[in-house]
């Protein structure tokens, strides 16, 4: 494994480099009216959330990871003219802003320095802010907006850097997102991976084509990199079977993986991604939610090359629910899994799952980061021999994402 070149060899090997995003102005745009659409269940006290996030970053750095802040990456990326062009092209759209306002908005953004433009891309822009920079164009779209309405929507879910892109072995999937509120997040990552000097010079595969993948949605919260060429993907509220097949095909064509286990999950908000109910904590142990139960699963392997170069035919084996753990163990090349399900009553199990108690982020085999509030899960992990590094989650937890959701590993060792 080469440090510096993006490569994620496993779920639990030592974490070397990771992208995070400190909560910022995008979260100050949330109101009781907009929070549902923006996929938050409550409003955050942003100042406190920032403090909590700083502690999270300090724990990651203390565990030996280089912590990259997404807004720094974006700022450095939009200094490259081609990157700037790319994001402007995709942020200002006639179909969203109307033909009258779109060019004016774009010209206004074009004139911004990189810090201001980064704020706009992540934090959005209100009509009032726009009119401080330019005269109001004759646009029905703008005219119909109130002074503090948003002309460019904020991206508060950038906090959860796990989802819009995910590194799997020697390549990255920039994902087509299921929810309208998150679609533009992929544009941010596409620009960073194409033009930021840290990534532009590196060679890596591409496992997907971002929003162009349309209905074949995949989100990183559903993707577990088991190690040794195996991957588990949850088919959830967010990730579709067609998304999984396309991911498998590309991984197999490059020879980067040779087995993908797809789990058929219930489609529910509480279980929106696989990592909300199941995460890996060491080479053979998984922390799982008691009420997840056993799920039907499929093992996808390459059967041989397909008709076109680069195409691979897929072999699909389907398993009944009772074989879920066996299917994952086989993909891992082990006799069995150690399944860790905290012992607690039904109510407390459901509350801790909601508070992301299962969303552990491993920083090394058997060493995980979790929120402090999920106390029963944390002590159960400790009793099971797992080292638990707690971070405060009173505010951060309100967006329905834990430490694994808030991290996008770019360099992680095999285990
Ligand atoms: N990997 C995860 N579980 N991410 C959680 C994302 C939460 C975010 N509010 C959403 O609904 O999309």
Automatic annotation (TrEMBL):
One of its GO terms (molecular function) is arginine deiminase activity. InterPro entries: Arg_deiminase. The active site is at 405 (amidino-cysteine intermediate). Pfam families: ADI. Its EC number is 3.5.3.6. Keywords: Arginine metabolism, Cytoplasm, Hydrolase. It is found in: Cytoplasm. Pathway: Amino-acid degradation; L-arginine degradation via ADI pathway; carbamoyl phosphate from L-arginine: step 1/2. It is an enzyme of class 3 (hydrolase). It comes from the Bacteria. The keyword Cytoplasm applies. Transmembrane segments: none annotated. It catalyses: L-arginine + H2O = L-citrulline + NH4(+). Belongs to the arginine deiminase family. This is Arginine deiminase. It comes from Georgenia deserti. The lineage of its organism: Bacteria, Bacillati, Actinomycetota, Actinomycetes, Micrococcales. The gene is arcA.
């Amino acid at each position: 494994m080469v440090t510096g070149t993006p490569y994620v060899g496993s779920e639990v090997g030592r974490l070397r480099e990771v992208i995070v995003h400190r909560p910022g102005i995008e979260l100050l745009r949330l109101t009781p009216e907009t929070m549902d659409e923006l996929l938050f269940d409550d409003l955050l006290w942003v100042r406190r959330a920032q403090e909590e996030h700083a502690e999270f970053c300090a724990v990651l750095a203390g565990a030996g990871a280089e912590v990259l802040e997404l807004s720094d990456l974006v700022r450095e990326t939009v200094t490259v003219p081609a990157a700037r062009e790319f994001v402007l092209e995709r942020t200002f759209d006639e179909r969203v802003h109307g033909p009258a306002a779109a060019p004016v908005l774009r010209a206004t953004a074009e004139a911004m320095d990189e810090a201001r433009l980064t704020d706009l891309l992540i934090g959005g822009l209100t009509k009032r802010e726009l009119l401080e920079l330019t005269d109001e164009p004759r646009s029905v779209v703008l005219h119909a907006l109130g002074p503090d309405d948003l002309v460019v929507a904020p991206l508060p879910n950038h906090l959860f850097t796990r989802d819009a892109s995910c590194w799997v072995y020697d390549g990255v999937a920039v994902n087509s997102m299921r929810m309208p509120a998150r679609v533009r997040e992929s544009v941010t990552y596409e620009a960073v991976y194409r033009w930021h000097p840290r990534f532009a010079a590196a060679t890596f595969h591409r496992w997907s084509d971002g929003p162009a993948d349309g209905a074949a949605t995949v989100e990183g919260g559903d993707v577990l990199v088991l190690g040794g060429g195996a991957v588990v993907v949850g088919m959830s509220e967010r990730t579709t079977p067609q998304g999984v097949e396309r991911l498998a095909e590309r991984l197999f064509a490059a020879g980067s993986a040779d087995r993908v286990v797809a789990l058929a999950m219930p489609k529910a908000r509480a279980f929106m991604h696989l990592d909300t109910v199941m995460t890996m904590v060491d080479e053979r142990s998984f922390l799982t939610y008691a009420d997840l139960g056993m799920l039907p699963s499929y093992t996808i392997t390459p059967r041989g090359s397909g008709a076109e170069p680069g195409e691979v035919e897929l072999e699909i084996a389907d398993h009944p629910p009772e074989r879920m753990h066996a299917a994952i163990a086989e993909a891992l090349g082990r006799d069995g899994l150690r399944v860790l399900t905290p012992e607690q009553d039904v109510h407390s199990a459901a509350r801790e799952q909601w508070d992301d108690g299962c969303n552990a982020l491993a920083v090394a085999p058997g060493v995980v980061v979790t929120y402090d509030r999920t106390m029963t899960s944390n002590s159960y992990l400790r009793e099971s021999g797992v080292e638990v590094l707690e971070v405060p989650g009173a505010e951060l937890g309100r967006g329905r994402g834990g430490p694994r959701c808030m991290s996008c590993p770019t360099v992680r060792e095999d285990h």
